[in-house]
Amino acid sequence: MCSPFCCPPKCHIDYYGVLRLTRDCTDLEIKKAFRRLAIDYHPVGGKNGDFLDVFTLVAEAYEVLSDPLKRSIYDQYGEIGLKIGMPSPHGQIPPYVFHGNPMQTYNEFFGSESPYADLLDFLEDKQLLERITKGQGINRKDDDFEISLQLQLIEIFRGALKKLKFERLVFADAEKTFTKIEEKIFTIKIEPGLKTGTKIVFPEEGNQNPTTIPADIVFITADTPHETFQRENDNLLMTTSVTLNEALTGTVIKIDTLDARTLRIPITSIITPNYRKVVAGEGLPLMHEPTRRGDLVISFLIEFPMYLPVTSKNYVREALDETKLTILPDCN
């Protein structure tokens, strides 16, 4: 079987084979194939060297298959029918003769002798086509590049200044045709009390590309788990363990705060499974009012004894005799 790129004069040309396509290919696939092969076999700068004959054959195949009438004749009657002309209800269809100048086809296709290789990818973007028909140009903006910014609870409590290194592509020449990798350092100020999920946007700082507008770099804040506290908006939540004796008779809870203080919280109420102790003003700073703070909310895990002697059970039974107790609702 003959290769489409090395046919002897009497061997018929397989235009689909030249463009490396199947017979059911679409018009867009034909355009993409020509773009790729024309750039590969371009007499000047092509990566496959000097292949003028191949370049010419690629141009001829594209001219035939991109024209609905020529393609239809070729599909039915082959290359011979195409080049000798065919009768039709409206008269004789003249023979097809390639003009012999592949650069003419190349320039008509690209509109330039130095096209961007991915130009035709835009034809698949319906929103972009709509913008083009409305005269808005071919450049579209890349989608946001989102990066999770993990913050320690102490950084949210005190505020911080974060410096993050990011690699991106930037233009390497004044004509904006080549790119190189460059490191960019982003400086981000973390305000005290910054909300979880806050988006910090650096407009158009993404990869530079000749055919698109750079994406926005978007840092989205997220809380790193803390060994003691859990965040709930401006409040801090924590859980501490107490014995059954402490739950019934009272205790003092010792807490080391984020700002290196020690709180001693007296618990005088009965600690039930649903009991919560709220310590006002010991949570996180309010972002827009840093002099004010949320609350510290303490939950309790009651530890029950594994064994209780009979005499102790009798004491507990006597102490908890319902006829001698006043039952009150839970309170803080």
* Helix content percent band: 25-40%
**Order of the strands making up the biggest sheet:** 10-11-17-14
End-to-end span in angstroms?
91 Å
Tell me the number of strands.
Answer: 17
Specify the number of helices.
Answer: 9
Poorly predicted sequence stretches spanning 5 or more consecutive residues = 1-11, 114-120, 131-138
How much β-strand is present in the residues? 25-35%
Shape: elongated
Rg, please?
A: 38 Å
Average pLDDT reading: 81
Short description:
The protein has helices at residues 15-18, 27-40, 52-65, 68-84, 102-110, 126-133, 153-158, 244-249, 310-319; strands at 86-88, 91-93, 140-141, 145-151, 160-171, 179-190, 199-202, 212-213, 217-223, 230-232, 235-243, 251-256, 262-267, 276-279, 285-286, 289-293, 296-303. With 332 residues, the chain is α+β, with helices and mostly antiparallel strands. The relative contact order is 0.08.
